[in-house]
Amino acid sequence: KQEVTQIPAALSVPEGENLVLNCSFTDSAIYNLQWFRQDPGKGLTSLLLIQSSQREQTSGRLNASLDKSSGRSTLYIAASQPGDSATYLCAVRPHTGNNRKLIWGLGTSLAVNP
Amino acid sequence: ETGVTQTPRHLVMGMTNKKSLKCEQHLGHNAMYWYKQSAKKPLELMFVYNFKEQTENNSVPSRFSPECPNSSHLFLHLHTLQPEDSALYLCASSQDGGPYEQYFGPGTRLTVT
């Protein structure tokens, strides 16, 4: 059974710091992996989607990497800003079976302090 | 309106009430989803509709009743809810029911008293 874990659960950093959020999954047979951002009480915004054949995806100050064999993905945020404060969620889509169903982590709550 | 919209944004209801949540997507997608997000739990997929047909029901109690009249609209009808049903209910859509990127609405914060 696929399980997704995100570490740390919460993170507080000063503005300008580069940081890494971690996502691990137990079954390497994935179709893709997606990183989302959620502001308090709000819906989810898709940040990056990495297909199983890809190693990384970049969007602005965000870079997501994928290492399927080790069951890990990282989200790197460069030069963090207070506006980056949010919860970051990782979701894995299994490669087999019902691949409509995303498997979710609990998220990392990020606070970037001015 | 663009993207995925949900109404109402906040809802407080008693256990004997009947209410409905509405979701509308303006992306030309053919699949729509209802998720429940509770504190300290991963997102829970409740229902999936693909081309207006329900393709997934993840053992959701019958007090939650979905309706999808067309590919752009999705409803969640609520009746005789329990306090533990209080949560953020999120709607999402995707190109179709395959492994495509899902786009989420802002959610409805539901409180059952």
Low-confidence stretches of chain A: none
The helix tally of chain B amounts to 0
Main β sheet profile of chain B: 7 strands, mixed
Structural class of chain B: mainly beta
The most extensive interface between chains reads: A-B, 24 and 25 residues
Characterise this structure.
The complex is a heterodimer of chains A (114) and B (113). By secondary structure, chain A is an all-beta fold. Helices cover 0% and strands 58% of the residues of chain A. Chain A is built from no helices and 11 strands. In chain A, a hairpin with a 4-residue loop joins strand 7 and strand 8 (72-77). Chain A starts with a strand and ends with a strand. In chain B, a hairpin with a 2-residue loop joins strand 5 and strand 6 (53-57). Chain B has strands spanning 4-7, 10-13, 18-25, 31-37, 44-50, 53-57, 64-70, 73-79, 87-94, 103-104, 108-112. Chain B is 0% helix and 57% strand. In chain B, the strands form 2 sheets. In chain B, strands 2, 4, 5, 6, 9, 10 and 11 form a 7-stranded mixed beta sheet that branches. Chain B has a 4-stranded antiparallel beta sheet with strand order 1-3-8-7, with no helix packed on it. Chain B is built from no helices and 11 strands. Chain A binds chain B through residues 4, 31-32, 34, 36, 41-46, 49, 89, 91, 93, 98-106, and chain B through 4, 6, 31, 40-43, 45, 48, 55-56, 88, 90, 92, 97-99, 101-107, 109.
